[in-house]
Specification:
Elements: E1 9-19, H1 23-31, H2 33-40, E2 47-52, E3 59-65, E4 71-82, E5 86-95, E6 98-112, E7 115-126, H3 133-152
Antiparallel strand pairs: 1-7, 2-3, 3-4, 4-5, 5-6, 6-7
């Protein structure tokens, strides 16, 4: 007899940001592997592998070996890409091989008077009792703040 597992739980969140760059430039920061790693990697000192194949059904892979030895793996798959307008991807997070969550994320880019209004929407399914909504929201917000700093660098938004 196997022990019963806690049910999955679902949540979502939406983050809006204004960036002083054109939608194509903000979109490009999501598509270039070197640029994306600069602003999206919250553990650069512990990253053991990063790869981005930005195309329909392409993958983004990120592995982090934390200081305590735990291995975190994130695998993304791109389902919809409309240049300068929208990216839809799904991703899962595993810690030491244990599935923690599966997410569907949509990133939309809108022209605004001062550059771009970007809307990030994520729907999360937490698995087997794991739940970290506040941490996930904070981490995503921090990444999007780093995106703003990246776009403010000379030449980044050209």
């Amino acid at each position: 007899m196997t022990a019963s597992r806690p049910p999955s739980t679902q949540t979502d969140f939406v983050i809006e940001r204004q960036y002083p760059a054109a939608p194509d430039a903000v979109f490009a920061a999501w598509t270039d592997p070197a640029a994306k790693r600069l602003w999206s990697d919250c553990h650069p000192e512990h990253t053991t592998h990063y790869a981005l194949d930005f195309r329909l059904h392409g993958h983004e892979t990120h592995r982090v070996r934390h200081a305590d030895g735990r291995l975190q793996e994130i695998e993304k798959l791109f389902f919809d890409i409309v240049p300068g307008r929208r990216i839809v991807f799904a991703y899962d997070i595993r810690l030491d091989g244990r599935a923690l969550s599966v997410s569907l994320a949509t990133v939309e880019f809108f022209a605004a008077a001062t550059g771009t209004r970007m809307v990030y929407t994520e729907q999360i399914s937490y698995l087997d009792g794991h739940e970290d909504r506040a941490q996930r929201l904070r981490g995503t917000e921090e990444g999007l703040e780093r995106l703003g700093l990246y776009l403010a660098q000379p030449g980044a938004a050209s």
